[in-house]
Amino acid sequence: MISGIWKEDVSLAPYTTLKVGGKAKYFAVVKNEEELKEVCSEARRLDLPVLVLGGGSNLLISDEGIDAVVIKNEIEGILYQELDDEVLVTAGGGEVWDDLVSDIVGRNLWGLENLSAIPGTVGATPIQNVGAYGVEAGELIESVRVYDIDKDDFITLSVADCHFAYRDSFFKTAGGRRNIIVSVTYRLSKKPRPRLLYKDLAEYFKAIANPSLQEVRQAIINTRAGKFPDWTKVGTAGSFFKNPIISSEEAAELVKEYPTLPVFVQEDGRAKISLGYILDKICGLRGLREGDVGLYEKQALILVNYGGASALEIKEFVQKISDAVFEKTKIKIEQEVNCW
Ligand code: EPU
């Protein structure tokens, strides 16, 4: 059965929003659980690693390509289950994320609206605990159905199993990477539950009390349009780096030197600081461009491939940026984007 979907030497750059990278030794688009299982058993037979591609919107693939079986997850399907004040929605890992959010908002269900207009697929949301405008996907996730490559079995993980943290989860650990996300169940609310505290939203709605769900979604779409390049036209993967989380003492030292640096105190007392601010206001790097690689002129945390950048050029550029931040702040920054 897999003969129809199994391909060799497939160029991966077009499958990523950064538009960079070489070929996959093997490549298969899977549309259901049986195909997923079969492709994985073929990979096992060939003794090759399996890597899963969703929307390719958080991925930097090396120029040399990869000796692996790359699976493009196109498992679809959306199922709504009514509870009293809530609704559980289960979506296939291959569903386009913003189509799901749009559908949910259209049904007047609250919870995911702040995550509007994010490129990528449902299957990616638990992996990096996608977050924006004061909401993280993990807060809404009820459970995740996965295919365990090693056990050759499908299992359901509870939210506690997922170990969600800022841009992090169980799925990013060595053991977690052995799980392929088949579907995700989110718990949504029928009652209004606006989350408007994020600076940009508070500003947007300062003169509008009790905005509707559609208005919140529109506010997010408008805000993002002002800050992000159009990923259908320019190569980008959104924020390229994570915002650093440092000790409260280190943050206090930095604030002494840079009093307007945005600092967000975390539950554990540590401080998340805005790398976009550091790159822009402290290092003066916003809009920096070298060849076809640059930091976006409207938001310095966003790396842009203006055309023909290679993965090597991007990595060299990223090293320079990391060195510049370290020189000014002594912080070692981490990438948010995954590298293959
Ligand atoms: N800032 C600057 N200059 C810049 C960029 C930012 O001064 O060039 C300042 C802003 O003025 C603001 C602060 O830095 O005071 C934070 O900026 P922003 O609100 O734009 O958010 P961010 O921390 O840069 C994060 C997420 C985004 C998410 C936004 C909105 C990460 C790594 N990034 O960016 O997520 O959309 O918040 O919630 O946490 C992504 O993960 O790919 C992503 C785009």
Helix/strand layout:
Elements: E1 6-11, E2 23-30, H1 33-46, E3 50-53, E4 59-60, E5 66-73, E6 78-82, E7 86-92, H2 97-106, H3 124-127, E8 131-132, E9 135-136, E10 141-148, E11 153-158, H4 159-162, E12 179-189, H5 199-204, H6 213-227, E13 235-239, E14 245-246, H7 248-257, E15 263-265, E16 271-273, H8 275-282, E17 289-290, E18 293-295, E19 302-305, H9 311-329, E20 338-339
Parallel strand pairs: 2-5, 3-5, 4-20
Antiparallel strand pairs: 1-2, 6-7, 7-12, 8-9, 10-11, 10-12, 13-19, 14-16, 15-16, 17-18, 18-19
Bound molecules: uridine-diphosphate-2(N-acetylglucosaminyl) butyric acid.
Can you describe what's shown?
There is one protein chain. The protein is of the alpha+beta class and 340 residues long. It has 3 domains: 68 residues, Uridine Diphospho-n-acetylenolpyruvylglucosamine Reductase, domain 2, CATH 3.30.43; 149 residues, Uridine Diphospho-n-acetylenolpyruvylglucosamine Reductase, domain 3, CATH 3.30.465; 111 residues, UDP-N-acetylenolpyruvoylglucosamine reductase, C-terminal domain (Uridine Diphospho-n-acetylenolpyruvylglucosamine Reductase, domain 1, Alpha-Beta Complex). Helices cover 26% and strands 27% of the residues. It contains 9 helices and 20 strands. Strands 6-7-12-10-11 form a 5-stranded antiparallel β-sheet. A 4-stranded mixed β-sheet has the order 1-2-5-3, covered by helices on one side. A 4-stranded antiparallel β-sheet has the order 13-19-18-17, with helices on one face. A hairpin with a 2-residue loop joins strand 17 and strand 18. The longest helix has 19 residues. The mean pLDDT is 96. The chain binds uridine-diphosphate-2(N-acetylglucosaminyl) butyric acid. The site of uridine-diphosphate-2(N-acetylglucosaminyl) butyric acid (EPU) has 19 residues, from strand 13 and helix 8.
